[in-house]
User: Fold these one by one.
Assistant:
Number 1:
Amino acid sequence: MIGREFIAELENKREKVENLFNFEKFKVGSGTYGQVFQAFPKTKNKLFPKKSYALKLIECIDHKQNMILSMSACREIALLRELKHENLIQLNRIFTDQRKVWLLFDYCEHDIWQILTYHRKSETDKFPSKGLVKSLMFQMFQGISYLHNNWILHRDLKPANILVVGEGSKIERGRVKIGDMGFARLFNSPLKTFVDIDPVVVTFWYRAPELLLDTKHYTKAIDIWAIGCIFAELLSTKPLFYNEEEKLETSTPYNREQLHKIFTTMGFPKIEEWHNLKAMPCYERLTKDFASAAYEKRSLAATLSKYKLQNTSEFRLLEKFLTMDPTKRITAEEALKDSYFYEEPLPNADAFYGMKIPYPPRKYLPNEENNNRTQHQQQLPPRQQQQQNIPLQQIPLPGIVKQEPRIQP
Ligand SMILES: Cc1ccc(-n2nc(C(C)(C)C)cc2NC(=O)NCCCNC(=O)OC(C)(C)C)cc1
């Protein structure tokens, strides 16, 4: 059998994702990396247990019949095939046809962004329970310490990337699954309060200070800072370093407003606290833009005083996550041994243990506009398609840089 026949033979033997699952009308996410659908196995499909799945369509640039997998698709598949942990999203299957690649995951109805949004808007149920917060944190640290022990950094931990399994599954109800949804980077969205900020707009709220000072080394400590921000947000339901200004992604990660927000919340870093501060690439700019005296009275305790967190194990642990000097920040392994996780209420493998789940299911997104865009892309010559496929943040947009006065709180 020559090549072409073999391919054709393979083609019609291969399971088609459209024949196995109902999903087209159930789009739940769309981002830089592709679109995600909630998928339900068709009745005749005995291959897959009757539960719902997340089906991620990866856009492949189809150039003269060759399938060119984007860099990010290769990275995601290579990474996820190696990883297996109960607190990480699990890649079940990969489907390919001439023009597309589909990744099949177990479905998670909830995530921490959705849980926080529910409590922010609720009059009667304003905070997640202590047990829920502790279980989410404990399971998050189990997932992250698995990643860090395998020398993998997440680098974009935020509430929307911490998924939680809902009622659907008996054995995995309330199980945290860390993922990376790679949401589209939208800029200049109209200024919104954080209550209804959608998870797809880029935020710097979870970025460690060394990142904002353009450190050349991504480290595990950067993930720990982000988890600290998520922990503070679970305790207060407010983003700790909320910053209404969404700036265009400039060439350097230096972001004055975000740094100002951190210093206003935590105080200005002292050299004796952070020995290596002077070695940071943006140290000169820091000293030019900020007067440390302006933050004298600022501290985490002062900022969180209204949440009555002083002298609690939560606060003591939070301070260890939000340590300015990355070399002094607690590791995931150490965090798991902290007394906070050995006091009542103990963490539970079902984060929703003992409670009815009040959080709403995911909303389905409209489908037609993306369809047109995808079809439209098929007609474009590859070069333009390439251009179109570069995520927004890499296309230098005409940012208006105005000279602002020196930062005063
Ligand atoms: C390019 C690239 C994109 C994502 C990932 N990645 N990395 C990780 C680890 C390392 C955190 C486990 C996980 C992923 N990928 C994903 O999490 N993909 C999620 C696809 C399923 N999407 C999904 O379940 O979305 C809803 C909206 C239903 C929650 C890697 C590389």
Note: Residues 184-192, 370-409 have pLDDT under 50 and may be disordered.
Number 2:
Amino acid sequence: MATYSRLPGSVALITLHNPPVNALSAAVRQGIVDAVQRALKDPKVTSVVICGQNGKFCGGADIREFAGPMLGPPLVPMIHAIEAVDKPVAAAIEGVALGGGLELALACHYRIAHSKAVLGLPEVTLGLLPGAGGSQRLPRLIGLTAALDLITTGRHVSAAEALKLGVLDQVTDSNAVDLAVEFVRSVAGQPLDSRRLSTLPCPCPPDVDSLLDKVMSKVRQRSRGALAPVACVRALRAAASLPYAQGMEKERELMATLFNSGQARALQYAFFSQRVVGKWSLPSGARWDNSTARIISKAAVIGLGTMGRGIVVALALTGISVVAVETQEKQLAEASRVVPAMLQREAGRRRLATPPGVISFSSNLQDVSEVELVIEAVFEDMSLKLQVFKHLSSVCRPGTLLCSNTSGLDIDQLAAVTQSPGLVVGMHFFAPAHVMKLLEVVYGPRSSPEAVATAMQLGKRMGKVGVAVGNCPGFVGNRMLKPYLEQANFLLEEGATPRQVDEALEEFGFPMGVFRMSDLSGLDVGWRIRKEAGLTGPGVESTRTRQGRRYSPLPDQMCEAGRLGQKTGKGWYQYDGPGGRVARSDPWVHIFLETYRAEHGLVARSITLEEILERCLYALINEGFNILQDAVAAGPEDIDAIYVFGYGWPRHRGGPMFHADQVGLGRILQRLNQHSHPDVPHLKPSTLLRRLVAAGSPPVQKWREFINKERVHSQL
Ligand SMILES: CC/C=C\CC(=O)SCCNC(=O)CCNC(=O)[C@H](O)C(C)(C)COP(=O)(O)OP(=O)(O)OC[C@H]1O[C@@H](n2cnc3c(N)ncnc32)[C@H](O)[C@@H]1OP(=O)(O)O
């Protein structure tokens, strides 16, 4: 709702009440409509201030209402009515003015904000555009060029930047509501025509068409199939070329198309998934709201390879003092040189004046004795990690949390060699660790709630999306990746080319197809893991069935030929040289594949894009169902957040489990059955998938409840 009060000196104060962010729900909109009417009718009122309760102006339209029928007064006429008021109206912006919240402020005649406020039109991130006049008013206020940037990226800006851009009239370090009240009193009675943004022309650069074309091609390239950024540019083209009323008509038309698109639903689901994963729970009953996190101020990182360096930077950026340990002198010297530069660069990118944390470098493990938390990031080798954990357990003071950045090794085994297994968890970062948003927090059967809570809290401080997951080989992300990679290799055996597979996946929306990705991360990573698993290496027979399952030796043979990817200048593609980035098809690979097929009596067939997507994605999704069934992930949102934030799954497709829901569980089951083969266990439909289909394919939002019920009745 919204409350109305009259302050001394003829100012009406309208306050939005809808915790936690004063979203514009039906009740709030109704409250605003009523309060504005009251202010208009009251002859003693000469000016109006709109603010939000509890230091938050407004977080925009109530996203939860998008799923249901439209109730209450619509936003657009409400906003028009505010602009039309013949008494000065000011928005007093504290906390946030986002989306519909900023659009409400743009309808006000003046905008005054607290210096800590954050403003923006993030609708594009929800698959929408600023559809309450924002796409037409903002460019009229700050010019087309700046509006294109804010609206197509959805980025949040500080009050200082908003003032510079001209979004705000004044910024204060003290109370924004008091200042706004004082301000509107001082302008009461002054003409308002020039303050109504809908009446102003849109300031455009002379080469407006070429600017719009350039931005359009940039968003198309960046958004890989997302509809909203393209619609945003179209709406801004209308603002630049049409009178306001016609521009609004275009905005309405574009919004209607977006609003009903599957992409908007997927992006809104992704918004809530990100929040759901923060409310973690463990099978033991420990949860985010009944477990206490420790506040870490001093940490250590062991191992300064690529991952370790990124983790050091991520920690230091939060203001934590870091002891960075590397026992190999050459690697230590290089890290001591490179890490401070990385830190400086990242601090600059985040607009921090100086990096807040202090880093000390050491080659001596003894130097971690005083820290509160250690993150081990040594080579992915179990015996080495066990040695490090044993050593840490004796060096660190009692109560120190010991974390491993392993990408899939057994956390419980590591915990077992320490004196306090309850204080051991996995903190699986993604490269580059100071940039990538995902953090898998892996709990073993003995990990304490405090250890999980501390790792999750630390992730949040580092700006990560932390997802608590159970302990199993590969955890969630890499466990699901295995069948995906496997299918991609099988497709090559059957007649596809790396480019064909990659193009299908990139068209789906991945930033990189599986083979380009593999070239980037290095083919030797998987090779080492397969050797450790006894799947390849000296003495292993070169057959296409290993350990009782279909196996493709193709990637092993690539490694044996020295083709390790970008670092060697050759992998599934060829590059300009070692470290080259531009992938070109390589005739060598085509001959290699033909020779391989001939040797194994395989006849290449033509493979459709549909088959590529089905086999790669449905194999991955099927493993997702197995993971839910095994309670390694608490719900589909956890898996989807992992894939969106760590594995390049296109956000406008919500995540693999959301995608399964959109495609239809019955269809996924039917296609898995079709592609299934006795020696490819990954394609055998999961029991959970079968049970969901048998239960009438409930929507993804109901799966958590369904799984819990099935578990109670021991059906899973
Ligand atoms: C005609 C259409 C016109 C306009 C369209 C729109 O306005 S679309 C909405 C545009 N607004 C946004 O995109 C803002 C979304 N919210 C945020 O970015 C953040 O929540 C915010 C406001 C920066 C606060 O961040 P913080 O980290 O402090 O909190 P958190 O994100 O955990 O949110 C707290 C709870 O509030 C819920 N919530 C936030 N915004 C909205 C919203 N606009 N509608 C509904 N609910 C919202 C959020 O889900 C959290 O609730 P929880 O129960 O914990 O999930």
Note: The pocket of LFKQWZQV is lined by residues 20-21, 23, 59-64, 75, 96, 98-100, 122-123, 126, 128, 131-132, 275 (CB under 6 Å).
Number 3:
Amino acid sequence: MMITISNTELKNLDIEISDGIATITIRRGSKLNALNYDTIEDLRKAMKEVNTNSDILSVIITGEGTKAFAAGADIAELAKLDEVGAKRYSQNGQDVFAIIENCTKPIIAAVNGYALGGGCELALACHMRIAVEAAKFGLPEVKLGTLPGFGGTQRLTQSIGKSKTLELIMTGDMLSAKEAKDLGLVNHMVTTHEELMNKSREILTKISGSGPLAIAMVIKSVNEVYSSDERGYLKEARYFGQSAGTEDFHEGMEAFLQKRKPDFKGE
Ligand SMILES: C/C=C/C(=O)SCCNC(=O)CCNC(=O)[C@H](O)C(C)(C)COP(=O)(O)OP(=O)(O)OC[C@H]1O[C@@H](n2cnc3c(N)ncnc32)[C@H](O)[C@@H]1OP(=O)(O)O
């Protein structure tokens, strides 16, 4: 049976529950599902529903349309931040993504297109990633005069190792779904959007055949490998804040919004 939660508090997301699987869809298609502050708060509320609703056994997070999962944090919002605001913005995103990572019900990111910046960081916070062939992954924040701020420096390193992470973040290059799969960032690659949802549901249905308590313990035990040291996240947020105090940050953001090349001065 399909239940639709019509939660008027959710501005840019919806949640649909079918056969114990909650599908959370980001709905800001005209901005390539960019994660503005309201959408991040929607994700926080959606995760509260996931954690408290016993009808929900597992979760798929995806984006509306066929072009983007999420093209990052909302650059128009970032452009207005000062150092203090940017640090807070980063910590708020980190906080919500930690709720996703630590959820004891399995969560798959069904990556239906661009997963860039905060969108890639959202996919990384999920327990698994299934992607369509046309999906693209990347942390291009340096091109905006900043660095990833929602845990990407930490989780990408955990996922694909230091050397490849440094290359990807410093070049700002995008990975194809095939490259991401070869690096272990993506669990499975499929061709169509229908296959994307089917494959995600197939895996979650298989998992739900086992005991939920054991599954929760698996998630907690595996997460424990990386949980002993939070300093990396704190540093990332501090640097993200510091970057907002530079001229390069504002030049990078304004250049994107004005659809021109940035002129970075190292100031
Ligand atoms: C802590 C986290 C920090 C971050 O995440 S910083 C952000 C990191 N992400 C990025 O740098 C990616 C930004 N987006 C792009 O580079 C491009 O988009 C794409 C390559 C993904 C696609 O390019 P194309 O096909 O030419 O589409 P389009 O015209 O650029 O985008 C369609 C509309 O979507 C808006 N948009 C796209 N990404 C964002 C974003 N991240 N924040 C705010 N708006 C965004 C655009 O501006 C535009 O809008 P309009 O039609 O009104 O001109």
Note: Residues 2-191+212-223 form a domain with the 2-enoyl-CoA Hydratase; Chain A, domain 1 fold (CATH 3.90.226.10).
